[in-house]
Amino acid sequence: MAPRVYITRRLPQPALELVAAACDVAVWDQDEPVPRDVLLAAARSADGLLTMLSDRIDGELLDAAPGLKVVANMAVGYDNVDLAELRRRGVILTNTPDVLTATTADMAWTLMLAAARRLVEGHKLIEAGGWQSWSPGFMTGHDVSGATLGVVGAGRIGGAVLRRGRGFDMALRYHNRSRSPELEQQTGAQFLPLDALLAEADFVVVAAPLTAQTRGLFGAREFALMKPTAVFVNVARGPIVQEAALYQALRAGRPWAAGLDVFEREPIGADHPLLGLPNLVAAPHLGSATVSTRLKMATTAARNLVAVVTGGAPLNPV
Ligand code: 8YV
User: Fold this and answer.
1) pLDDT tens digits for 76-100?
2) Which of 157, 292, 297 is the pocket-test mutation for ligand 1 (most atoms within 8 Å of CB)?
3) 189 and 110, same structural domain?
4) Cβ atoms within 10 Å of 306's Cβ, excluding its own
5) The domain spanning residue 189 has which CATH number?
6) What is the mean pLDDT of residues 241-266?
7) Is 285 marked active-site?
8) What share of the chain is helix, strand, coil (3-state, %, to 5)?
């Protein structure tokens, strides 16, 4: 009998075909997250799950899925998964590293440039008919070229953000759990303690995973350490930042601006307080959102799923 798997979202066709060729597959064939009760019911008979960041994989779900061998999460981050509960039951977790590194680093840069050069504010001004004339100080921002870039969380994505900084003649700084001689050698980036990085960087980019150590890492104290001209960017996970503190800090103008791809609770609505600030650029979690990268993520997750349920080794075990 073919292994039974459940896929929690509509996937690109090549990824679906990959799974269907080896498995008895059921799909939540929608663009909305699968309802919890549907997921719990589907998990009951599943050998494998292909999941999204929006699916909570916890003890309750695992209890409902006695035959489960693998959870193939279609993301590099896996803070939606209770890894300890999985390990306790011997269920394998896989993720999709590497394929989204460049795309997500590009997103960090999109936000850096947009926030520093007031792109969204300018666009809104034109839309509102507010572009009246030119003057020397009109909508002036801050230079990216030649500035100091500080990356917090210098793994794959953080490293790629730093490498791009070389093309902009930036001074590169990073903070990480551990120093990376390889990164330092490749990019010339200098390791700094967090507080020193915050005080020195013109651009602070967060690319760290959400863990017990990074949850709430950025609060009033950290924002107060930044330069009044600094731009703060988060492409990692919303809960790393205390959003209420960021709101107050941006209102007070320190940091000068921010670009966020992630939020404490996603999705956010039009009434989110941060959206009322002119110095905030927001994106709806688009870090990995290119056609080519999402296809690679889906096929990577599909390959991991199939490998484990057919008795092989996972390609990207966490
Ligand atoms: C995705 C991400 O948008 O991979 C991650 O960790 O945050 C993004 O690439 C998301 O995970 C899709 O499930």
Assistant:
1) 999 999 999 999 999 999 999 999 9
2) 297
3) yes
4) 24
5) 3.40.50.720
6) 98
7) yes
8) 40, 15, 45
- Please report whether residue 62 resides in a domain: yes
Cα separations in angstroms, 290 against 20, 74, 183, 247, 285 = 24, 14, 26, 29, 12
Cβ of residue 74 lying under 6 Å from some atom of ligand 1: yes
Q: Is the CB of 53 under 6 A from ligand 1?
A: yes
**How far is the centre of ligand 1, averaged over its atoms, from the C-alpha of 288 (Å)?**
6
Domain with 252, as residue range(s), is: 101-282
Asked if the structure places residue 276 within a domain, the reply is: yes
Could you tell me which residues are beta bridge partners of residue 174? 151, 191
Question: Is the CB–ligand 1 distance for residue 258 below 6 Å?
Answer: no
Give 22-79 pLDDT, tens digit per residue.
999 999 998 899 999 999 999 999 999 999 999 999 999 999 999 999 999 999 999 9
Q: Is residue 114 part of a domain?
A: yes
Query: Mapping DSSP to helix (H, G, I), strand (E, B) and coil, where does residue 58 land?
Result: coil
Q: What pTM, to 2 d.p., does this model score?
A: 0.96
212 and 182 in a single domain? The answer is yes
Whether 192 and 107 map to the same domain: the answer is yes
Q: Which residue among 262, 288, 292, 296 has the greatest number of ligand 1 atoms within 8 angstroms of its CB, and so is best to mutate?
A: 288
Is 266 a known active-site residue? yes
* Residues 180 and 219 occupy one common structural domain: yes
